Amino acid sequence: MTKKQLQESVAYLQSKGFENPEIGIVLGTGLGQLVDQIEDPIVAHYNNIPFFPLATVEFHTGKLIYGSIAGKKVVVMQGRFHLYEGYDFLDITYPIRIMQQLGIQKLFVSNASGAVNLDFKKGDIMLIEDHINLQGGSPLAFKNVGDFGERFVDMSEPYDVEMRSILKDIASTHNITLRQGVYASVVGPQLETKAEYRMLKILGADAVGMSTVPEVIVANHLKLPVVAVSVLTDECDPDNLKPINVQEIIEIAGKAEPKMITLFKELIKRI
């Protein structure tokens, strides 16, 4: 990754009309309905953006969408990249750097994840307060990282306190149960064994997924305030573990998504 590559990607999007977005949004698995809220959308398919990671078959629909939500300019990433698809950390986080170069001031991230904390239930939404990186690497571990910001990034409070506080208030106002906890990010794509779920609980994780942490690390590198929520799609009880049903996970994400949309829309209005 070079600054020149970033500049070419940004120039292409600006030529399409992506002008001064205020907020960037990353949508997780099964969480695509937010794009229906975008007014006057302009679409850029990943395959057409210079130096953007090439979409796999699963992500042929991957696109950046620019427009307005609640009167503010947003750029929404529909379809993210994962380590388990064979991408590297620089690929996964390239879109975050692009959105920041376009001008976003805040970043919202969502994901679908499993509830390790058994007080949490399928369909709940969890506000991520902290994370554990179990992906075996960092999106900042490359030679010329100093060209893009400080090499050593403080992570004492990776998720923006002010936006978290506003989201809690919104949830209370709209009678949305908003859990709070620690998100563990693993490589995947296989799901966890019973022993691994027990390990995650011992480590202090409340939820587990296969994304989000690289994007959040880069947001902190760019000094970009970030907030993230998990839609909890399954309950990870090692003493009563049932075979996974991916279709059911996506259905649960879809049913819970209106709550996430309410949280994000109201947050956009308030910041």
From TrEMBL:
Lineage: Bacteria, Pseudomonadati, Bacteroidota, Flavobacteriia, Flavobacteriales
Superkingdom in the source lineage: Bacteria
GO BP of this protein: nucleoside metabolic process
Name of the molecule in the record: Purine nucleoside phosphorylase
Record domain Nucleoside phosphorylase: where: 23-269
Signal peptide: none
UniProt entry tagged with the keyword Transferase: yes
Role according to the record: The purine nucleoside phosphorylases catalyze the phosphorolytic breakdown of the N-glycosidic bond in the beta-(deoxy)ribonucleoside molecules, with the formation of the corresponding free purine bases and pentose-1-phosphate.
